[in-house]
Amino acid sequence: MAIAELTVDAELVFEALDKQRRRLRMRRREVAEVLGVTPSSYTYWSRGGGINADALLRACSWLDRDARDFARQDEAALTAEGPALTARPSARRNR
After folding, report:
1. Is 68 helix (H, G, I), strand (E, B) or coil?
2. Nearest 5°: phi and psi at 11?
3. What ranges do the domains of the chain cover?
4. Does residue 84 carry a pLDDT above 60?
């Protein structure tokens, strides 16, 4: 079984999470609780920090999205079996 590596754009993940949060009129700490992470982790993501694979999968589940939706544009084609996940901080940090 061949598995490609997937590098996730953490900023895209956070943008999707925050959009869903606003749509549902939730507070950031409520989303963090749903995702099983600390509120400080959610804040870290909002600042362009990386997201670990477990949190990414929970976020994708909550968003009803596939992790490949958040792949960086420079990724090679993925195999049908699915990718290995590597979540790295976005190159577009705003600090």
Report:
1. helix
2. -65, -40
3. 4-88
4. no
Contact 12, 73 (CB under 8 A): no
pTM across the whole model: 0.72
Torsion angle defined by CA atoms of residues 66, 49, 77 and 82, in that order, rounded to the nearest 10 degrees:
-40
CA distances (Å), origin 71, targets 6, 24, 63, 89, 95 = 6, 25, 15, 12, 23
Which has the minimum average pLDDT: 18-22, 66-70, 74-78? 74-78
Is the predicted pLDDT of residue 91 greater than 60, yes or no?
no
| CATH of segment(s) 4-88 | 1.10.260.40
Higher-scoring residue by pLDDT: 76, 60: 60
